[in-house]
Amino acid sequence: MSNLVLGHDATAQRFANLMQKNTLPHAWLLHGLRGVGKAMLAQSLAESYLCESLTDAGRGCGQCHGCHMLAADSHPDFMQLGILWDEKKKKFNRDISVGQVRDALSFLSLSGMQSQRRVLLLDDADAMNNQAANALLKGLEEPSSGSLLLIVCHDLTRLPATIRSRCMLEHCAPLHENDMQQALQSMALSENIMPLAEQLAQGCPGHIAVLQDDDVAQACLQWSKHVSDISCADIGAMSDFLQKYIQIIPHGLMVAMLMLPLQSELQQSRTSYAKKQLLLQAAQALLAWPADVIRHSLRPAPALLSRILDMRGALKNQ
């Protein structure tokens, strides 16, 4: 259990204490940077809530029938909701629909099958469209007895204030160095990728979990070499690489590797104000690329290469 709440033990214990006092809020909103472990924490809280034999500390035991069913993703009183995969388009949908939220709230309103409790874990809550958010608000205003709603959100500002005000807010901060080192060790990454993983993680182990796949890890090592110095990079080779690997490496990770060697350039004081503005605009465009690809249905490789060229131009104009 400690592995599941690594870095977030205070929140898990607060949840356990409130549950023991029978004063547990019916809705918890876990927010913070993507990759810090919010969804894993929510799974841990769900386990505690549905456990049939809690530990002395009020945590899920991990051994009872309820805990085993939850671990096997077969607990009848647990439901997880998030962005759906579109099999026809071979990509994830842009948002969480109102139909998804209504179906989930209907599940939450029923009596539990294994116990008197039911849990809904809503992941990527900031991806709800307006209708879905309004439907969720109604569910928050009229909670069912024994129901628990665990909401995971990466950008709190994208949720309506009316939803935020009806939840127990828990900020999940990036992991401290000791916890981060423990998380890295548990991933058993290959030795040659470890230095890059440590640079990219920034307290968010979820960012670099994909590096456990050796194909992704090796592609990332190649990409880091391509972007080590954008001002003199081989654009043709970079374009060939993107055509081959753009669907293998997570887009956020590609941008993070782009930004690593640019940080010193962005922080230099000798750069004029006008030039620094050009650099900042180019950097903002790079950072926005993953979301823009989804939001505007852009072709990933050409869109990224265009923004890299803009950054290259800004660097050469210094």
Tell me about this structure.
- 49% of the residues lie in helices and 9% in strands.
- By secondary structure, the chain is an alpha/beta fold.
- It folds into 2 domains: 9-171, P-loop containing nucleotide triphosphate hydrolases (Rossmann fold, 3-Layer(aba) Sandwich), CATH 3.40.50.300; 213-316, Zinc Finger, Delta Prime, domain 3 (Up-down Bundle), CATH 1.20.272.
- A 5-stranded parallel beta sheet has the order 2-5-6-1-7, sandwiched between helices. Strands 3-4 form a two-stranded antiparallel ribbon.
- Strand 3 (85-86) and strand 4 (91-92) form a beta hairpin.
- Helix 4 packs parallel to helix 5, helix 10 packs antiparallel against helix 14 (300-316) and helix 11 (251-259) packs antiparallel against helix 13 (273-295).
- The longest helix has 23 residues, at 273-295.
- The protein is elongated.
- The mean pLDDT is 92.
Order of helices and strands: HEHHEEEHEHEHEHHHHHHHH
Count of runs of 4 or more consecutive helical residues: 14
CATH classification class of the largest domain: Alpha Beta
**Domain unit count:** 2
Report the uncertain regions.
none
Percent of residues in helical segments?
40-55%
Spatial strand sequence of the major β-sheet = 2-5-6-1-7
Under the CATH scheme, the architecture of the largest domain is 3-Layer(aba) Sandwich
